[in-house]
Every structure is written in C-alpha cells, then in structure tokens.
Specification:
Chain lengths: ~500, ~140, ~130
C-alpha cells in the first residue's frame, strides 16, 4: 500500500512524457494522477491511524540490508497534506502556468517533484533519502528555470549552487555515518548510535545533517538562497515550492533529531533554539521591508519556518505536536496566500504594492481569499495559526524558555503588521483611475476553485483544531518514542 | 573543411560491434561486471559515434522513435518488472527467477527485465541530452 | 593509505570551496564538481580500504576469505550518476545564463534583488521544443 504514493506519480510522469505534444491529455492526466494520489493517501492515513506504523521491505530484503519504506503517523499527515496541495495546484496551474511552460514539460516535472517529495516522506533509509532529495531537487531546478526570463535564470543559479552545496554536505554526512555505524537503515542506525553516543563523531554528523537540511529548509544563517530565488518563477511554482520543498527539509530535521540524535539535546538543541529565534526575526523583518507581494510572502516562509524549528528546539512531546500542527497549518495558509497573490496579479498585472490598489471595493470575494489566510498566518483566533502558536507557547512555558516565547509573540505582531501593510496598499487604497478598467477583468474558474477550497481547508483546520491537534499529539508521541519505529522496521527479533 | 574518410569507414565496423558488445554487457550483468547502465552507455556511445561521423540528423532518421519515447518506454519496462512480484504476493521489486537457465540468454528473471529497462532508458536519455547539445551548435 | 585518501579528500573539499567562492560562473561550476568528487572520495573511505580484494563473490570458489564492503561502492555509483546528471543540468543552465545576461560574472547578477527590465524570451524557448 505505502509504495503507491511513490509509484503513482512515477507512472503518470512516464505517461505524460509519452503524450508530450498533447496538451489536453497532459492536463487530464495530471488531475487524475493527483486525485488518485489524494485517495491513496487518505487511505494510508486511516490505515496508519488505526493499525500503527506501516513498513514495506522493498524487494523482500530483510530490514537492515535492504531499503525499508516506513510510514508512521507523522509521515502520513505530511503525505495527506502534500497530496491535497498537489491536487489543488494541479487545477490552479491550468490558468496559472502559461502555455509555453506547459509545453516545455511542466506536467511531467510536477509529477517527478511529487514522487521525490513522497519518497522522502516514506523512506526509512538514509541513502535512499538522499536519492529522493536529488529527484526532488532536479525537478525543482528545472521548474525554477523553466521559462528562462532573466530574473528566473539568475535566481535559478543561486538556488542550484546553494542546494548542490547542501547535497554535498548531506552525502559527506552519510559517508561519515556509514563509517561510524556500518548501516544506513534509520531504525538500525538509531539503535547503534545509542551505543556510540559518547563519540564526538556523532556530534559532528548531527551538525553536518543540521547544516545540510538547514540550507534546504532555509533556517537562519543559511536561508539566503530563498529570498533570492523563490519570487522569480510563476506564482504557482512558488506556491508548490513553499508548500513542499522547505517543509520536507523541516520534516527530515524533525525525523532525524527525534529518531537518530535524541540524546544530543544539550548541544544541538541550544543551537536549534537560537537559530529558530533568529530565523523568525530576520524573516519577518525582511518581510516588513518589502513592497513586492511575492517577495514579502517569500520572507514570511522563512519566518514561519522558525516557529516549526522552535518546536523542535523545545523538544517536548507537546512542542513537537504543536510543530506538526504548525506544519500543516502553514502549508495550507501559505499556499492560499500565494494563490490569491497570483489572482491579484492576473487582474492588475503586477506584484508591486505601489501599483496595486482598490481591490476591496470591487472584489470582495477575492479580498476575503487573502484576508482569511493572512489573519491565520498572523495568528488571530479562531484561525489555525492561533492554535498552532498557542501550542508552541504553552510548550515553551512548560520548558521555561521565556525569551523565545517573547520573541515568538513579537514576531507574530510584526507578521500582523506586514499583513496589514499589504491589506492597506493592495486592497483598501482607493484605486487609481487607470485601474478601473482592470477591475472588471474576469478571473479564470481554474483559479477560483482551488483558491476557495484551500481557504476552506485552512479555516476548517482552525475550527476543528481540537481533534486535529489530538492526531498531531499521537504522531508526536510516536516520534518521541523511537522504540515503536525501530520495532516496526526491524521486527520483533531484537 | 573536408570530412575525414577514416571515421565514417571505421564507424561502419565499430558501430555493430559496439551494439553487440552492449547487449553482451547487459546479459552478463547480474553476477558479473556489466549491467544495463554500462550496456546502455556503450550502445549510446555507438549511436553518438554514428552521429559524429555522419550528422545528428542522420541519427534522427536512424532512430525508430523519438529519444523521449525510448526513455519513457525504458522506464515503463523497469517499472513493470517491479510489479511482477506483486502477482506472487511478494513485496514490490522482489527478484523472481526462472529456475532453468535458457540457452544463450542464461538465467532470466525480473532483475534482467529491470536491467533491460535501464538499458533502454540510458540509451534514450543520453541520446536525448547529446542531440540537444548538438542542435545548439 | 587511509591518511593519503583522507588528505586528498580534504584538499578536494578546500579547493572546491575556494572555487565556489569565485565570481566567474564557470569556476563555480568547477567548484561544484570538485566538491562532488570530494564527497565521493569520503564515501569511498567509509569502509575499510583493502587492496586487490573484490567486492564480488566468485560463483565457482564461493565466498572468499576476505572481501571488500560492497555498500560504499554501490553508494558511490549512485552518487556519480546523480552528480553526472546534475552537472549536465548546471552546464546547460550556465550556458543559458550567459546567453540571457551576457555576462559570466556573478556580481552582475543582481536582477533578483534590484528589479531590472525583464526580457521576455519565452517565445524564443518555444521554438526550441523538439
């Protein structure tokens, strides 16, 4: 069962390559693929929810020797969120991606990207994780450069070089790990690293992994590639990247530091908390100074990554649960914001706040599609952002980390400030005379439907916060007790 | 500049040899040195030799399909070999072998089929990349 | 032998980092390549080095008395294939960047920060679809 999230995108990617010239078939295939993926992932989620961690030993090789695919509740939650986003973005891209890009292989790349993301979420093997990251990166490299505008190419160069550097560090860390433990199966590794935990090499490896995935998930001293590249491709692709790529980096960090390096808390978790604080602060300050809608939202990605990272740094069960809830919340809310920004651009032809204006007067529905997720990201009740931040702050109070709580609250306020700025400039400011003609421009239904759906999901996440948070707590309990994971992968032998 | 006569004549002999050698590498691959990837590279370099000694457009005429299709079909073959064990209620990609070795081909099983897919895929992808480079010139 | 390999890997890492910090795009590409080699060499040293011992088991003589660990070699093979494809992409990207920006100097690539008039070359791309 759990092999299908990887196989489905692969099969459909191949078929879309075979139908390279036929645009209609490619569109239909991408809808069918992501729709099927969503159904499969809903099934996997309920399977894991009822019956616990699911394991497949690929090729029937026993666990520490072959490649294991493992889906626990955390992976299942991420898989489900990913496939919902993928389905809605596949619909949105009918209008959000221009014909030249669609002809040039947008749809197969979309499927390959999904395959990489799902593979990284499912795998239980370190080297296999590297391979999935490369699959994901290769497709994202091409997606970000697709179209070949000048800014895009320049952004792509920065993105490619820094991510290749991260991959090299990741590969080196894998080499050192194999040298130390003689295994790359994550469950087996968790057992063996406990035995050698006094060795300084474990700390080196932990920090190498932290840096490698830190670059990929854009945490504080390593985030420079993100604001330089994320705003350059079309907004659908930016939404896809912001929803999947950095979040998979974050998923891996949480997985590694709960499963492989849980005993390193003294050293690494201080680094993590410090970096989380700076990530939040620099991200939101960057956002506050921007006047371009896409760049402003890109800086918010960094700031929100800081919150998830903060939950990992606090390292209690409650904090991890809050981080997981935050991940789901931010994937939905952020995608909704990017999609509404795309609709604004399709009406007024610009992302520059100075050139926008008067949208609230003529386009109340469109304004709501921005306002609701924006308030959610800023953390106002009754939206999901409020509960996510509340969870983190309660966890922080329990661990007596008052400084980071103060910082989190301040950053929340600054987020609200920058969202207010966007609201004032783009929506409330009286329109210029030249803009009246634009206001009547229709927006394609391919954009309306996914945007409204995703905002609905985001609002529901807030209204149903209690049951969803309970699921997140179950996932966090699984993460904080690695013996469950190890027993599921290696069997009852040990 | 006049084209050298040596390379086209040599290619006429080398290309079939290299193609046969690539199939030899493919079939030998499972327990000994060789395999689909190397075999595919050798076959692709034979095709590239042809393209260099004549012209890229001649290679286009030689290929039965667009290199994109060749790559896609290769991937499909590999993927299909992974699905076969599911009919025997084994996990995905488990190797299933025919017990008695066949003449010439040797021992055959799903990994052989997988290697064949890799072979076709590598030919498709390498030719695709290199033809793309050649068109830029 | 191990020390020699370790030092070589270290030198490759240093050279790669040095090249990656240069301003010319081609030199940065060389830096990425060197870093890839360095990581592969590190991976190669992950298992004990043995001379003249194959990782393969001979079908006639059975399991030999000592054999090299095949896992790092399999890992390197995969890593080499990945770095091959990544390099191919990077070369194409740099060519395209040179054609679009008309410069090989990374310092002149500031359009992502300071908006400059965007040249639409999408139509150009359309022609290149095979």
């Amino acid at each position: 069962m759990i092999i299908y999230p990887i196989l489905l995108p692969l099969i459909f990617a191949i078929i879309t390559v075979l139908f390279w010239e036929n645009q209609q078939v490619k569109r239909a295939l991408s809808i069918i693929s992501t729709g099927l993926l969503m159904i499969v992932n809903i099934n996997i989620f309920f399977l894991v929810y009822r019956e616990g961690i699911q394991v497949v030993q690929v090729g029937d090789w026993p666990a520490p020797f072959g490649i294991s695919l493992v889906v626990d509740l955390f992976s299942a939650i991420m898989l489900l969120t990913t496939s919902i986003i993928a389905f809605l973005l596949a619909i949105y891209s009918f209008s959000g991606i221009d014909l030249a890009r669609r002809k040039f292989g947008y749809f197969p790349l979309f499927q390959f990207l999904l395959m990489g993301v799902n593979g990284a979420l499912c795998t239980g093997d370190l080297f296999n994780l590297y391979v999935w990251f490369e699959v994901m990166l290769m497709s994202s490299f091409v997606l970000i450069a697709l179209g070949g505008e000048r800014t895009q190419i320049e952004g792509a160069i920065k993105y490619v070089i820094l991510n290749l550097l991260a991959s090299t560090l990741f590969l080196s860390a894998i080499g050192l790990t194999y040298n130390l433990a003689g295994t790359l199966n994550m469950a087996d590794l968790a057992l063996r690293l406990q035995v050698v935990q006094t060795s300084g090499q474990v700390t080196v490896i932990a920090v190498l992994f932290l840096v490698a995935f830190g670059i990929k998930s854009a945490i504080f001293p390593l985030f420079f590639w993100l604001p330089a590249s994320y705003h350059t491709p079309p907004v659908t692709i930016t939404a896809l990247f912001s929803a999947l790529l950095t979040k998979v980096g974050m998923y891996t960090l949480i997985r590694f530091f709960t499963l492989l390096f849980p005993f390193e808390s003294e050293f690494t978790h201080t680094i993590i908390l410090t970096s989380a604080g700076f990530t939040m602060l620099t991200g939101v300050l960057g956002a506050a100074s921007q006047t371009d809608l896409r760049r402003l939202l890109s800086f918010h990605i960094i700031s929100q990554i800081g919150y998830i990272f903060m939950g990992l740094g606090l390292f209690t069960e409650y904090a991890i649960a809050a981080s997981i809830y935050f991940l789901v919340h931010i994937i939905l809310a952020k995608t909704a914001l990017f999609l509404s920004a795309g609709m604004v651009e399709s009406i007024q032809g610009s992302f520059d706040l100075k050139k926008l204006g008067g949208l609230y007067k003529h386009r109340i529905g469109l304004s709501m599609l921005f306002l609701l997720p924006a308030l959610s990201v800023a953390g106002l009740p009754p939206f999901s952002g409020f509960f996510a931040k509340l969870g983190l702050i309660i966890a922080g109070l329990e661990s007596k980390q008052y400084f980071i709580i103060g910082l989190a609250l301040f950053v929340s306020l600054m987020t609200l400030f920058s969202m207010t700025k966007v609201w004032n400039e783009a929506y409330w400011k009286p329109p210029k005379d030249s803009q009246y003609a634009d206001q009547q421009k229709p927006v394609s239904a391919w954009r309306w439907v996914p945007s409204i759906t995703i905002v609905l999901f985001s609002v529901l996440l807030g209204l149903l916060a209690n049951p969803i948070f309970e699921v997140c707590q179950m996932a966090a309990a699984q993460l904080m007790d690695p013996t469950q994971y190890i027993r599921a992968v290696l069997g009852m032998v040990r | 500049m006049q084209r050298s006569i040596i390379l086209p004549v040599a290619t006429r002999f080398l290309m079939p040899l290299m193609l046969v050698f690539s199939i030899f590498l493919l079939l030998r691959g499972h327990n000994e040195v060789g395999g689909g990837f190397v075999g595919g590279l050798v076959a692709a370099s034979a095709l590239m030799l042809y393209a260099i000694s004549t012209s890229p457009s001649a290679l286009w005429r030689l290929l039965p399909l667009d290199p994109r299709f060749i790559a896609g079909i290769g991937l499909l073959i590999s993927l299909f070999s992974g699905f076969i064990p599911l009919f025997y209620e084994k996990p995905f990609m488990t190797g299933i072998w025919i017990e008695t070795p066949l003449p010439v081909l040797g021992k055959i099983g799903t990994p052989t089929l997988f290697d064949l897919g890799v072979y076709v895929l590598v030919i498709g992808v390498v030719v695709w990349i290199l033809l793309e480079f050649a068109e830029d010139e | 032998m191990l020390y020699l390999m370790a030092i070589t890997a270290g030198v490759l890492f240093a050279a790669g980092i040095f090249m990656i910090l240069r301003r010319s795009m081609v030199k940065v590409l060389v830096g990425i390549l060197l870093l890839g080699y360095a990581a592969n060499l590190l991976l190669f040293n992950a298992a004990p080095l043995m001379r003249g011992v194959p990782p393969l088991i001979d079908p006639i003589y059975g399991v030999p008395a000592e054999y090299a660990d095949p896992v790092p070699q399999a890992l390197i093979l995969t890593a080499i294939v990945i770095s091959f494809s990544v390099t191919a992409f990077a070369v194409v990207l740099i060519r395209r960047a040179y054609a679009v920006t008309g410069t090989g100097d990374l310092d002149n690539m500031h359009c992502t920060d300071i908006p400059c008039e965007s040249e639409e070359i999408l139509s150009d791309l359309e022609d290149e679809i095979i």
